[in-house]
């Protein structure tokens, strides 16, 4: 299998979105970190296996699944999430569909999304059939949960724990350099 090489950092277009909390969705307020979208990060020749091998080679995240995105808004309180789109395209919503500060993006094969813990996300519409991603979580934080922002019992306590999660010390795609390291503080 040929080694997968991401786009040069100097050529990479990155979108950063600070998404306001909304209802019981903490969004960016939980970590003070933006949602990151690396547009066309990987070449169109990518395969899921090559993406998984690349993620493992950086040693920052562990690939855990290949799937589409759930159609119900959800977030994770136990870990950040990295999604690498490996086929098709879809319109995704981040932050809650009724949130005036939400982000709706059409993402496609080759794009990468870094979702901080607490940021709600869901599939709105599959644009090109076969939309699939490789989902990965920081090494040591592979146990992810599902929270729905409905104010259910116990969820507020989970949201409060998000502030204690460590942010990336290395970029999940680029290693020692990369967008998630900008402004680490």
TrEMBL record:
TM annotation in the entry: none
Identification of the protein by name: Cupin type-2 domain-containing protein
Domain of life: Eukaryota
Record PANTHER family: BLR7373 PROTEIN, CUPIN TYPE-2 DOMAIN-CONTAINING PROTEIN
Residue ranges of domain Cupin type-2 in the record: 72-123
Pfam families per UniProt: Cupin_2 (PF07883)
